Amino acid sequence: MWEAAALLLLLLLPLALPLALRARLPRQAALRPAGRAVLITGCDSGFGHLLALRLHRLGFTVFAGCLRPGGEGARRLLREAGPGPGPGPGPGPGPGRLRVLPLDVTRERDVAAAKELVLSHLPETGFWGLVNNAGISTFGETGWLPMEKYEKFVDVNLLGCIRTTLAFLPLLRKYKGRMVFMSSVTAYFTVGNGIYSMTKAAIEKFCDALRLEMKKFGVRVCVIQPGNYARSTNIQPPVDAEQIWNELSEEEKAVYNKEYVQERSDFFNNILNEGCTTGHEVVDAMVDALISPAPKARYMVAKLKEKLLVFLCTVFPTVVMDSILSFALSKVKLT
Hints:
By secondary structure, the chain is an alpha/beta fold.
């Protein structure tokens, strides 16, 4: 009995220690947003769209990067921000405090143009934050996806973050600002979207190195780890088993059967349907990462069962998690 209690205490200690240390720190006021600029990628929809509006209302100067600056998402962002008086500290889109700019994070010239625009419109307190939010998701087992798909996901989800980071690193060091990266709880486990999980796990390691390197310059690096917010962001639409089967190579069709593809698709769609319909909790975490005097290195915004899965992944042997997921994922035999 005492051994079990000691083991439980040992497991809970890593969770309790950071809270105790934060409680002992002297309370400091949150920074004042006025006169500080933030660039956000992926503002056409989802978390980026919500964050751009929230930061604008708080008083930040917001540069909202959109893949389609003339699309409905960008136009809606400007409408929701409201009319502005033009240059100066007052609110407003266009030449005011919220600017929509074209930003495809896979294109060097887009990133360079974004940097030039930010430099030419810096407010008085300078460049405060870079939020790497842009990302894409898909479904499929490893052999179901072509190499071109892997290259695209790495280019958007991982290299896109690195491109913007390298471009804005000098400004962030100069103004001792903040960097916020969008990861996911699926960086720890995968339930059918391994290609997405792979890129998020890579983001985590990139940020671990970056966080330590930037500490000496007074730059804080924060990672946001949302749970299932598919219904809120629409990053992952429901999957169609028939379409997946039709796109499989003949070699894959010789291994898998339609019943298996259907079962896996249904399982994944059920997960998507359980997703949160609002993303305000995630945006709250992103805002805290930008304005808190003592931001966290990681913000996990997820349901209890998702946090439990992460806990199992990080504490128990890999074989335990593999057994749980293997049992849950599929009971359909391939032969």
